[in-house]
Amino acid sequence: MANKNTVVWCAYKRRSCDTSSLTCADCPRKKKDTRPSRSKRGYDSYWYKVRQEVLQRSGIPREQWPLYDVDHNPPYNKDIEPDHRKYTLIPMLKADHSHKTATEDVRRDEKGKFIKKK
Questions:
Q1: Mind spelling out the 3-state secondary structure of 1-64?
Q2: Residue 42, phi-psi category: left (phi > 0), alpha (psi -120 to 50), beta (remainder)
Q3: How far apart are CA 55 and CA 30, in angstroms?
Q4: Does the pLDDT of residue 12 top 80, yes or no?
Q5: Residue 73 near residue 90, CB atoms below 8 Å
Q6: How far apart are CA 51 and CA 91, in angstroms?
Q7: Does the bond joining 74 to the residue before it have cis omega, within 30 degrees of 0?
Q8: Per-residue confidence at 34, pLDDT binned at 50, 70, 90?
Q9: Given pLDDT bands bounded at 50, 70 and 90, which one contains residue 4?
């Protein structure tokens, strides 16, 4: 049986490295998410019921739900309006939602809350 290749491309250093870890020994480790828990940010069991209703109403088959996120418009802020139903909720594929969040809603404080745009 042939030996498997143990050298892979490191996305951080842009060079080959050992496969024993996701990053090389020289690479910095990923920062731990220091934001409050999902429920403390307003994404509790109530949110999951609302999310389910949005996906059902949109006609998305249940087996495809893990592929989707539900986007709040304007961005969700529990301190301003905690009720998810008062936002415009749009189902989006996870990649599209991540791209939108990174380009439009990118400014957050150290607690993960959105910083007002100037």
A1: CCCCCCEEEECCCCEEEECCCCCCCCCCCCCCCCCCCCCCCCCCHHHHHHHHHHHHHCCCCHHH
A2: left
A3: 32
A4: no
A5: yes
A6: 9
A7: yes
A8: confident
A9: low
Q: With the C-alpha atoms ordered 35, 70, 98, 21, is the resulting torsion angle positive or negative?
A: positive
Query: If you write DSSP's letter for every residue of 66-117 in order, what string do you get?
Result: GGEEEEEESPP-TTT---GGGSEEEEEEHHHHHHHHHHHS--B-TTSPBPPP
Residue carrying the six token digits 């024993």: 20
Q: Cα–Cα distances in Å, from 11 out to 20, 25, 31, 62, 73? A: 15, 13, 15, 34, 33
40-91 tens-digit pLDDT? 888 999 999 999 999 999 999 999 999 999 999 888 888 889 999 999 999 9
* Cα–Cα dist 112/18, whole Å: 33
The alpha carbon of 3 is separated from its chain's Cα centroid by a whole number of angstroms, namely: 37
CA separation for the pair 31, 79 (Å, rounded): 26
